[in-house]
Amino acid sequence: xxxxxxxxxxxxxxxxxxxxxxxxxxxxxxxxxxxxxxxxxxxxxxxxxxxxxxxxxxxxxxxxxxxxxxxxxxxxxxxxxxxxxxxxxxxxxxxxxxxxxxxxxxxxxxxxxxxxxxxxxxxxxxxxxxxxxxxxxxxxxxxxxxxxxxxxxxxxxxxxxxxxxxxxxxxxxxxxxxxxxxxxxxxxxxxxxxxxxxxxxxxxxxxxxxxxxxxxxxxxxxxxxxxxxxxxxxxxxxxxxxxxxxxxxxxxxxxxxxxxxxxxxxxxxxxxxxxxxxxxxxxxxxxxxxxxxxxxxxxxxxxxxxxxxxxxxxxxxxxxxxxxxxxxxxxxxxxxxxxxxxxxxxxxxxxxxxxxxxxxxxxxxxxxxxxxxxxxxxxxxxxxxxxxxx
Length: 390
Ligand code: C5P
Hints:
Elements: H1 7-19, H2 30-35, H3 38-45, H4 64-70, E1 74-79, H5 81-89, H6 95-102, E2 107-111, H7 115-119, H8 121-132, E3 136-137, E4 141-144, E5 150-154, H9 158-169, E6 179-184, E7 189-192, E8 195-197, H10 204-215, E9 219-224, E10 237-240, H11 244-255, E11 260-263, E12 270-272, E13 291-293, H12 297-303, E14 310-317, H13 321-332, E15 336-341, E16 353-354, E17 356-360, E18 365-367, E19 371-372, H14 373-389
Parallel strand pairs: 1-2, 2-3, 6-9, 6-11, 9-10, 11-14, 14-15
Antiparallel strand pairs: 4-5, 7-8, 12-13, 15-17, 16-19, 17-18
Helix pairs in contact: 1-3, 1-9, 4-6, 5-8, 10-14
This protein binds cytidine-5'-monophosphate.
Cytidine-5'-monophosphate binds near residues 244, 267 and 313.
């Protein structure tokens, strides 16, 4: 850590890394130690945070060579303009910079400074040097800075830095640390104690999605309506629901700390206004069931969406598919929609294959071939990963 007010954020980062089981050695520049206490980092990292070359009692020294060889990854966060320049030019006038020069492991750099310092040609050319040296740069973010100015220069959020570390160690699991909710299957809407209204959804597309998300490392919560098919094994949580209102209740309960919500369920649009307590008897006359509309689950959740939460829905359209799907993105407040057009042969509700087009909220269209639902799910997840990292 080098000297920046953002050093306090590094405390959260250290906690997150510890939670993942990382072994940490915190090295601070003397200037960082003026912003935050080394004691805080010693306690959080469970190892004495080091600042000086010479140990406090004057009897030993902090061996930067050993430190540099010990680490599997060096992360400089926050990286001040001064430290960045020291790294770029190979200065070694403090323990952090000497450790950097001794380190054989990959290096990640998360700059943090005021906006003018960040965009200064000197800083930018130093960053270019470090990038060309093969280091991974976690770009500073836009926002309010400690100076009161607004612009680029904020240290990347601890969660984002953690994500970068995790995907560095585990590139095949790009969704690690992401919590995803998937709704799947139909809902059933009771008419009386023995009858209900429902639809032909098999739940297959949603189940394949849940499986594909899990494979990419996501924490997956599946909310499923009643289906003949079993949910895939190994998910983090499966919530079984019956009606649309139950599905809505379950979704609301888990939405706030989710990163991604994918609505693959075929939610019944209507439910009987009155559920008869007793089985309705036939008496030779016409029976009328008054229906009322169910809440739109994904549209309601979209209204509560916070920054860095993504919502995707499905659309099954019989005509003017693209236009209708675009309208649905807008009306429901989605990031993107996966369109199955009934105009396409093989795209459907119950079958094993599907032909989709993904449309994002900027109206970009991505078309896919007719494929088995398992491969369609992999395409959707790949699209999602690209989308959230864009
Ligand atoms: O409006 P329509 O039913 O065509 O929208 C389909 C999309 O909206 C699907 O993603 C579906 O899961 C979601 N939906 C919902 N709640 C409803 C109806 C649909 O979340 N009541």
